[in-house]
Amino acid sequence: MRRQTIHSLTLLIAVVGFGVALAIYLTHKPEVFDPLTYNPQEQKMYDQQLQMIGGKATVVTNDFRNWFASIWHGRALAGTISVLTIIAILTFRYIALHPDFVIEEKRTD
């Protein structure tokens, strides 16, 4: 693949990925924190009960699950798409510039 084609495709991936991330960021309003509905004691009690039932690993797993679910909504989704765009660009450029590493050709002499 020619270098000009690689650069053009990289630019296309970047424009599309960051454009979608920007559109998501601008169209979603930030989440409003309501201190009247949040009770930190309820979260502590829930974590303690969860730890008594399943142990510390269950609490850590629950925290990870909640974090992972939160990155796919609202403005956090824009950041997630930006990071995935960067990973896609780096992966594409590596594969395009190092085809011998990815595909080994079989030679018959």
Calculate Rg over CA atoms: 22 Å
Shape designation: elongated
The main β sheet shows up as: none
What percentage of residues falls in helices of 4 or more residues? over 70%
Supply the number of structural domains: 1
Order of helices and strands: HHHHH
Number of strands: 0
Helix-strand blueprint:
Layout: H1 3-27, H2 40-54, H3 56-70, H4 74-97, H5 99-102
Helix pairs in contact: 1-4, 2-3
In short:
With 109 residues, this protein is an all-alpha fold. The chain contains five helices and no strands. The mean pLDDT is 88.
Q: Could you describe the 3D structure shown?
A:
- With 109 residues, the protein is mainly α.
- Helices cover 76% and strands 0% of the residues.
- Helix 1 runs antiparallel to helix 4.
- It is elongated and about 60 Å long.
Question: Which keywords apply here?
Answer:
109 residues, mainly alpha, 5 helices
